[in-house]
From TrEMBL, chain A:
Entry's localization field: Membrane
GO molecular function, one term: proton-transporting ATPase activity, rotational mechanism
UniProt key word Signal: no
Key word Ion transport present: yes
Name of the protein described by the UniProt record: V-type proton ATPase subunit a
Topology in the lipid bilayer: Multi-pass membrane protein
Keywords from the UniProt entry: Coiled coil, Hydrogen ion transport, Ion transport, Membrane, Transmembrane, Transmembrane helix, Transport
One Pfam family per UniProt: V_ATPase_I
Function noted in UniProt: Essential component of the vacuolar proton pump (V-ATPase), a multimeric enzyme that catalyzes the translocation of protons across the membranes. Required for assembly and activity of the V-ATPase.
Annotated GO biological process: vacuolar acidification
GO cellular component assignments: plasma membrane; vacuolar proton-transporting V-type ATPase, V0 domain
PANTHER family assigned: V-TYPE PROTON ATPASE SUBUNIT A, VACUOLAR PROTON ATPASES
Coiled coil regions in record: 51-128
From TrEMBL, chain B:
Keywords of this entry: Membrane, Transmembrane, Transmembrane helix
Species in which this protein is naturally found: Cephus cinctus (Wheat stem sawfly)
Transmembrane domains' residue ranges: 12-32, 68-87
Lineage per the UniProt record: Eukaryota, Metazoa, Ecdysozoa, Arthropoda, Hexapoda
Protein's name in the database: Ribonuclease kappa-B
Family: Belongs to the RNase K family.
Length: 846, 95
């Protein structure tokens, strides 16, 4: 097991694989997931690589599987997901798989095609059925009206039928041919259709329409559409062509409709029987399709895994170099040093499986490249590591802040979120997610917010527990205090004093106070006091600064571990020591002042050490920086906390300020001197090595020397860059120390806001349920409690929790990590089937 | 009989569990005259110490009983949403 504090030690390896064994070996490595392959043919495009054909075949198989999956989903058939991951099949099995998928796809396509044709047929028949039924109504109406009854008289010639009947003919009208067309059109097109007909035919046609109540299925899209039946009466051939054109334009389907009622009845009977037949055939087709899909659904997940694995293997093989003899493949990969044994075992397994006799060779290589950063995580540290990596991936072998974050993150969060009740809700939620980890993870929800919460379940759980603790210290339980040990304050006033005065003071220097503090946390009496906020502010501000300064000092110390690990003595001398002095002499001194004030001043002491004379820490600190002396509030008091304070403060300040030029100039000067001495050496070497026989190492240096000499300008540039860099670094640190210390006051501010908000919520909402002096108050309380609970969870736990979380994140990223963290690395991305399958699953679900 | 979906039912279950626990406890605290809750006790005008004591006493007792009444209603809510939860989980299984 590698160290938790730094990323894993990595090495670049060369891997020689025999061509036949390569597939099996890479498959084993994929199962292991500890190797990151490098692309050895970066200038070759995707289509010119060796195994492009295989990758394409896999793509094709995947496409077929996706088609199958889509069809399965359409039918709502549950897919069997055992969650197991079958091994990557041998390359020769690929042909079998391809054949299976091909067969399935063709079968399904055929079935679908047939089904579509049948459905189209079915649609036509249903439409015809509706036409016959609806037009029957039109004709019946007409018959009752008795006007156009003769139109369909079979005894007459068509030409003899007149629009106005016998009377019209007698009145001198011409005998006219009256025709009609019937069809079906989408319901939303009706108004436009009607208007168009009216305009194009100048009102000489007669349109009747009726809606089909049941929606019809469109066979090509499968959507449910509403349609209407229409019938158009017109006169003459010209109008007929015109009407037909318009119908065509509006995508209306026209159906032949016999004129005689008897024919219509006969046709309707025929249509009905054909619909019946079609229904049975359609049912059988559906059944067949269902059977095919159910059979496929059993295996589809398994197939997906297999195909994706094959594809990943060939994709990886494409990254390899081919040896000149074409007998072996050469790969380069980053591996963790500790896992070389396991990798070699896996390679041996792969060779055995492929039946090859030549073992693969794993060769360590020297390189100047920066290796990737690989932090081994488990389910507990994963969330915390993710928080760190979101800011920037650690440089190779840099101190990893994640282990410290595990404690500091929930703690600083809890300082802002201190309420036992709210912490309990959070801890219960986190604890539930932790307990039900496996079933919840197996659900694989694609809800983003849920996944964020679930990924951080251990963080949430710890934050909840820590908040319960700080809530206990603040003595806040849904903004109410718990009186566990009994308050240590006492009210000794009599009735007349209490009833006559609006507010009273309890003197801590007397019988009102037991002269012992409450055993743990805040005394519950503060909940009822007027000056609770004033009292708590002073306490919370101080602890915020104390935590902050300790946190920052720790950050600088972690920086020291970095310098020591990378053996950069120059950084220890020029960065760490002045930084530490600056921080300790100014800000840690202020922390000490707070402790002195807490210890030295008390109301029971004589006046010089009493509350009235206690000097303000903040004012003292400001005066110290401004080089001013403290002023006592009156003659009785001493303006200083200890004797000689003024001198000590001045000395501390001067030393701290002296650290600034130290930080600013020491490093660039030292670097410059080193460089100069190196140059001298090289020049000297150059002189002596002329004619030297064993100039192996010397020659290299000599070369380097001439190269450097040739780039003198660049060197000047380098020095300038170092200066600029160092000055930025220094300014950032000095200004940062001030602003970061102040920034930790957010611990106090958010904690105050949280406590106040929860108190306001109780007073404004919950109290409404407790005002009633009757039994129905219970019912009102029932409603009010629900409201209060929802607001508590929504505002106080969720929103305030989010805000406290973000502030904690900031304190870690900016205030803590800026003291030591480079974050200039890149992550180790091993070739692992698990990761590939997971991401493939995720993209499919999107 | 199905009234609401599974999410509402779960919500109701969680809320009523919380309600039962907290209201029973709050009732107990009112009953033992917890000072922390004194600001929540309804007290109208009073002129003497004795009057104050009787009024605040009555207020504490009333609030304690009100809390327990609300807790009892939450037991009903709990049973109701529990039933709904059961109905929902069974119907989702049968699909």
């Amino acid at each position: 097991m590698g160290s938790l504090f730094r990323s894993e030690e990595m090495t670049l390896c060369q891997l020689f694989l025999q061509s036949e064994a390569a597939y099996a070996c890479v498959s084993e490595l994929g199962e292991l997931g500890l190797v990151q392959f490098r692309d050895l043919n970066p200038d070759v495009n995707a289509f010119q690589r060796k195994f492009v054909n295989e990758v394409r075949r896999c793509d094709e198989m995947e496409r077929k599987l996706r088609y199958l999956e889509k069809e399965i989903k359409k039918d709502g058939i549950p897919m069997l997901d055992t969650g197991e991951s079958p091994e990557a099949p041998q390359p020769r099995e690929m042909i079998d798989l391809e054949a299976t998928f091909e067969k399935l796809e063709n079968e399904l396509r055929e079935v679908n095609q047939n089904a579509e044709a049948l459905k189209r047929n079915f649609l036509e028949l249903t439409e015809l059925k509706h036409i016959l039924r609806k037009t029957q109504i039109f004709f019946d109406e007409a018959e009752h009206g008795g006007v156009v009854s003769q139109m369909a008289d079979p005894n007459r010639e068509e030409e003899q039928v007149t629009l106005l009947g016998e009377e019209g003919l007698r009145a001198g009208g011409q005998a006219l041919k009256l025709g009609f067309v019937a069809g079906v059109i989408l319901r939303e097109r009706i108004p436009a259709f009607e208007r168009m007909l009216w305009r194009a035919c100048r009102g000489n046609v007669f349109l009747r329409q009726a809606e089909i109540e049941t929606p019809l299925e469109d066979p090509s899209t499968g959507d449910q559409v509403f349609k209407s039946v229409f019938i158009i009466f017109f006169q003459g051939d010209q109008l007929k062509t015109r009407v037909k054109k318009i119908c065509e334009g509006f995508r209306a389907t026209l159906y032949p409709c016999p004129e005689a009622p008897a024919d219509r009845r006969e046709m309707a009977m025929g249509v009905m029987t054909r619909i019946e037949d079609l229904n049975t055939v359609l049912g059988q087709t559906q059944d067949h399709r269902h059977r095919v899909l159910v059979a496929a659904a059993k295996n589809i997940k398994n197939w997906f895994v297999k195909v994706r694995k094959i594809k990943a293997i060939y994709h990886t093989l494409n990254l390899f170099n081919l040896d000149v003899t074409q007998k072996c493949l050469i790969a380069e990969c980053w591996v963790p040093v500790l896992d070389i044994e396991t990798i070699q075992l896996a390679l041996r397994r792969g060779t055995e499986r492929s039946g090859s006799s030549v073992p693969p060779i794993l060769n360590r290589m020297e390189t100047f490249e920066d290796p990737p950063t690989y932090n081994r995580t488990n389910k507990f540290t994963k969330g915390f590591q993710a928080l760190i990596d979101a800011y920037g991936v650690a440089s190779y072998r840099e101190m990893n802040p994640a282990p410290y974050t595990i404690i500091t993150f929930p703690f600083l969060f809890a300082v802002m979120f201190g309420d036992t009740g709210h912490g309990m809700i959070m801890a219960l939620f986190g604890g539930w997610m932790v307990l039900k980890e496996k079933p919840l993870a197996a659900k694989k929800s694609d809800n983003e917010i849920w996944n964020i919460f679930f990924g951080g379940r251990y963080i949430v759980f710890l934050m909840g527990l820590f908040s319960m603790y700080t809530g206990f210290i603040y003595n806040d339980f849904f903004s109410k205090s718990l009186n566990i040990f009994g308050t240590y304050w006492k009210v000794n006033y009599n009735w007349t004093t209490v009833s006559s005065l609006p507010s009273l003071q309890l003197d801590p220097n007397g019988t009102d106070y037991l002269q012992r503090p409450y055993p743990i946390g805040m005394d519950p009496v503060w909940q009822l006091s007027e000056n609770k906020i004033v009292f708590l502010n002073s306490y919370k501000m101080k602890i915020s600064i104390i935590f902050g300064v300790i946190h920052m000092i720790f950050g600088v110390v972690v920086g020291l571990w970095n310098h020591m690990y990378f053996k950069k003595r120059i950084n220890v001398i020029c960065d760490f020591i002045p930084q530490m002095i600056f921080l300790l002499f100014l800000f840690f001194y202020m922390v000490l002042l707070m402790f002195i004030k807490w210890i030295k001043y008390a109301p029971t002491n004589e006046e010089i050490n009493g509350p009235y004379c206690a000097p303000s820490v903040l004012i003292t600190f400001i005066n110290m920086v401004l080089f001013k002396a403290n002023v006592a509030p009156s003659e009785v008091c001493d303006p200083w906390m200890f004797s000689g304070q003024l001198g000590v403060q001045r000395a501390l300040l001067i030393l701290a300020v002296l650290c600034i030029p130290w930080m600013l100039f020491a490093k660039p000067f030292l670097l410059m001197r080193n460089m100069k001495s190196k140059m001298h050496q090289q020049l000297n070497n150059h002189g002596t090595e002329n004619g030297d026989v064993e100039g192996g190492a010397g020659a290299v240096q000599q070369n380097a020397g001439t190269v450097q000499g040739g780039h003198k300008e660049e060197e000047q540039h380098d020095i300038g860059e170092i200066f600029v860099h160092q000055s930025i670094h220094t300014i950032e640190y000095v200004l940062g120390s001030v602003s970061h210390t102040a920034s930790y006051l957010r611990l106090w501010a958010l904690s105050l806001a949280h406590a106040q908000l929860s108190e306001v919520l109780w007073n404004m909402v919950m109290r409404n349920g407790l005002r009633y002096e009757n039994w129905y108050g219970g019912v009102i309380l029932w409603v009010v409690f629900a409201l209060w609970a929802v607001l508590t969870v929504g505002i106080l736990v969720l929103m305030e929790g989010l805000s406290a979380f973000l502030h904690t994140l900031r304190l870690h990223w900016v205030e803590f990590q800026s003291k030591f963290y480079m974050g200039a690395g890149y992550t180790f991305q091993p070739f692992s089937f698990e990761i590939i399958l997971d991401s493939a699953q995720a993209t499919v679900e999107d | 009989m199905k009234i609401c979906g599974p999410k509402y039912a779960l919500c109701g279950l969680v809320l009523s569990t919380w309600g039962i626990i907290q209201l029973v406890l709050m009732g107990a605290f009112f009953f033992i005259r917890s000072v922390a809750l004194i600001e929540d006790v309804p007290v109208s005008e009073f002129t003497s110490l004795n009057e104050f004591y009787t009024k605040i006493d009555a207020g504490y007792t009333q609030n304690a009983f009100n809390c327990w009444i609300a807790a009892c209603i939450y037991i009903v809510t709990f049973l109701l949403s529990g039933h709904q939860f059961y109905v929902n989980s069974r119907s989702s299984l049968s699909v």
